[in-house]
Design goal:
Layout (H helix, E strand, L loop, with lengths): L1 H12 L1 H36 L4 E5 L5 H13 L3 E7 L1 H11 L4 H6 L8 E6 L5 H9 L4 E6 L1 H43 L1 H9 L4 H41 L10 H30 L2
Antiparallel strand pairs: 1-3, 1-4, 2-3
Length: 288
């Protein structure tokens, strides 16, 4: 408790230095929060599309049911498909009638014989869609394969890019935070050089002198993580109505409050680590 009071007194004595340390930590954890939201959101979007039929294969009119069943078994054996739905001609006609129920003229022109049977296929992983599509195209009983390759590729590319940029930026900001914290705590140690000499003369141990500075670094980290998380969460909650209308039909938002609190806990642990690391580097560098 005495070390905590000493650390708090050190913070109040140099508010501008403390503000600089907390600000850089806030920026770091603001970036951590935002990129976590982006990664979780993009992963949920991909999972949503993975749960939907992404490849549709239409069969030729002369395709036999035994051949269709054999193709279904072949696809299942690959382990790449999460679901395979067979849509018969009669089912296709029902879907067509439902989609065009307000246009009687279109309903009279189409019969079950006109519409082909089809497979609606979902993949376990979105990256497997290309190989599934290629397998279907090689089948002699398949007349056409519809596969939204550009949409799927764009989603996967964006997610990978966000992940790489996020990790790089967070690592860069973490390093900058550590360097700035080391500098600030080092300046504070230099400013208290006379006090530290007196403490050593009266028998204070090195760790007795170091602990307040280490706790001070932890304070900076915790406050920065809390402020960064609060700003990012407030921005997320504020934009949720707009994002929900934009992502209509995709159940990504609203964000789980439990998940937000778990993120805060993880960020505080990371902040404590960065604070302790910075303080250790500073005190072992400036306190010989």
């Amino acid at each position: 408790m005495k070390f905590i009071k000493t650390a708090w007194r050190n913070i109040r004595r140099s508010p501008y230095q403390a503000l600089a340390a907390i600000s850089i930590m806030t920026l770091t954890f603001l970036a951590v929060s935002f990129f976590t939201f982006l990664l979780v959101g993009s992963s949920e979007i991909i999972s949503y599309f993975e749960s939907k039929p992404q490849v549709t294969a239409f069969f030729k009119n002369e395709a036999k049911q035994s051949d269709i069943n054999a193709l279904e078994n072949k696809l299942s054996d690959t382990g790449k498909t999460s679901s395979i739905k067979f849509v018969s001609r009669e089912d296709a006609l029902k879907i067509y009638k439902e989609q065009n129920k307000n246009d009687p003229l279109l309903l009279d022109l189409v019969t079950a014989e006109v519409l082909p049977a089809s497979f609606e296929i979902s993949a376990v992983k979105i990256e497997d869609l290309a190989s599934i599509s290629d397998m279907l195209k090689k089948s002699p009983i398949v007349s056409e394969v519809i596969y939204q390759k550009d949409v799927v590729s764009a989603l996967t590319s964006w997610t990978n890019a966000i992940r790489k940029i996020g990790v790089a930026l967070v690592l860069l900001l973490s390093l900058v935070s550590v360097f700035i914290m080391v500098t600030i705590i080092g300046i504070k140690i230099s400013q208290r050089k006379d006090d530290i000499e007196i403490m050593k003369l009266i028998g204070a141990t090195n760790w007795y002198i170091r602990w307040p500075f280490i706790i001070e670094g932890v304070f900076y980290g915790i406050f920065g993580a809390l402020f960064g998380w609060l700003i990012a969460t407030a921005a997320l909650l504020y934009t949720t109505p707009f994002l929900e209308s934009f992502l209509k039909g995709i159940p990504v938002l609203p964000a789980s409050y439990v998940g937000l609190l778990v993120l805060l806990g993880i960020e505080i642990l990371l902040a404590v680590f960065l604070g302790v690391l910075s303080s250790f580097v500073a005190v072992f560098r400036y306190l010989k």
